[in-house]
Amino acid sequence: MGLPLKRALSRAKDALQHRLTRGISTSSIAVDTLIIGGGPVGSSTAYHLSELRDQKHDAGIVVLEQDPTYQSSSAMFSTGGIRQQYSLPENVKMSLYGLEFLRNSKELLACPSFPDVDVQFQENGYLFLASSEDEVAKMRRSNEVQRQAGCDLIALMEPKELKATFPWLRVDDIMLGSYGTSGEGWFCPLVLMRGLKEKAKDNGVIYVTALIFDAKRDQETGNVLSITVQNQETGEIQSYHPKHVVNATGARAHSLMTLLAGQDDMLKNEIPVRPKKRSVFQFQCTTDQDRLIPQVAPLTVDSSMVYFRAFGKAGSGSFLCGVSPPEHKDVDCWDPDELAFPDHELFESIIRQSIAHRVPAFESIEVRTSWAGLYDYNTVDQGAIIDFHPEMPNVFMVNGFSGHGLQHSPAAGRAAAEKLEYGDFISLDLGMFSFQRFISNDGPGIFETARI
After folding, report:
1. Distance CA 101, CA 136 (A)
2. Contact (Cβ atoms closer than 8 angstroms) between residue 104 and residue 404
3. Domain that holds residue 252
4. How far is Cα 452 from Cα 433, in angstroms, rounded to an integer?
5. I want to staple 237 with a disulfide (CB 3.0 to 4.6 A). Which of 26, 352, 353, 449 is the partner?
6. Is residue 198 part of a domain?
7. What pLDDT, on the 0 to 100 scale, is given for residue 45?
C-alpha cells in the first residue's frame, strides 16, 4: 500500500474517531452492488448492470468515487486511443464492441442531464511498423487473428505502399506495416466517462464521493461484510453492507484489495497489479518547408515501440508521443506527487531520436507541454483480470488492463455486468482473463504481441 494512501486512511480514521467521541453514530446502508471507482471501467460496469436490470431509480447499485472531477483519473492522462490490432481474439472482440459503442454513444448515452453526447471520435487509424523478420511474422499472425475475430479493417502494407500513403514516413528499414483503414483512432476520455456516469445515474445508480478507510470480512467465507467510508460531501461516516463489491480502481487495485482483506499481506494470492508511471509529450514540428510534415498522422507505433499521433486540428503541426520506460527503470509509482514530473530524460534519450529517424520532419521539434499518468500494470502477463477473487468470493475484479482500460471499458463493463447478474459471460466469453491463471500457472498464455 502506498504511503499517500496510508496517510489518507490514517486521517480518515482520526476523523471517524473524532465523530464517535462526539456521540455521532454512523449510518448503515445495505446495497446489492458496490462499485469502487467511477472511472471508465467502473462507470461502464454501472451503466451495463443498470441496463440489464432496467429498474429506474431502484437498480441497487452504488458507485464510490474519491475524485468526481476525475483530475487524477488515468484515463484523463491517456492519448484516448482505440484499436483492433491485437494478437488475442478476445482483445480484438472487446475492441470491436468498443468501436460499436463509440459510434453509437450519442444514442446509447443520451439522457436529460447530458442530452448531446459527442465523444469526438476521430478515425485516423493506427499504424504499426515492423523492421525484422520476427516482427513481420508476428504482424502477419496477428492480422489473421484479427480477421478471424471479425475485423476486416486492417491492411498489411509493403514499404512502397506505405511510402505512397504516408509520404512523410521513412521506410527504407521497414519490412511491413499494419494500418487500420477505419474503426481505429482516438476520442475524448472525459466525454465518454461523463456520458457513462450520467446515463448510469439516469438508470438509478447512486454515485457517492467518499474516502474508504475500513472493511470487515467474514472469517469463514472470506466475503466482505462491510466497507466504511467518509462521505466527502456531507462528512458523514457511512457503513455499506454489499452483496457484491467491484474493484474498478485501476492503478490502485492492489491497494484496495489490501484494504478489503483487512491487513497487509493477508491474501495468499495478491492481485498482480501495480501502478506504473507513463509520460506523454506534446510537441510542435518547426521544420522548414523542404520536408513533408504529416497533415493527419495515424497513431504510429514504430518498431522501437515509440509512438506518436497527430494532435489538434489537421495540418497544425502538433503531435503527441510517448514510450514505455526500459524495464529496469519501470518502477512502481505509489506516490501521486511523482506524476507532476513527466520523464523528460526518457524523451531525450529514446523518443527524440526515434521519431526523428522515422519522420525526417521531426528532426526539428519543440516540446510544448507534457504530463504523466498511471497504468494499472499486470506484472505477470499484462492481460486483464475480470473475475471474482478466490479468497474474497464476493469481490469482483475488473483490473490489470495495462494501458488498454479506456478503450476496453465498454466491453469490460458489459462482461462484469453479465457475470454479476447472470453468473457467467453471455455476450463474449472472457474466461481466459480468470484470476485462476495466476494460481494454477497452467492457463493459456495471454501475452499480447501487438503492444504499446
Report:
1. 31
2. no
3. 3-76+190-272+381-440
4. 19
5. 26
6. yes
7. 98
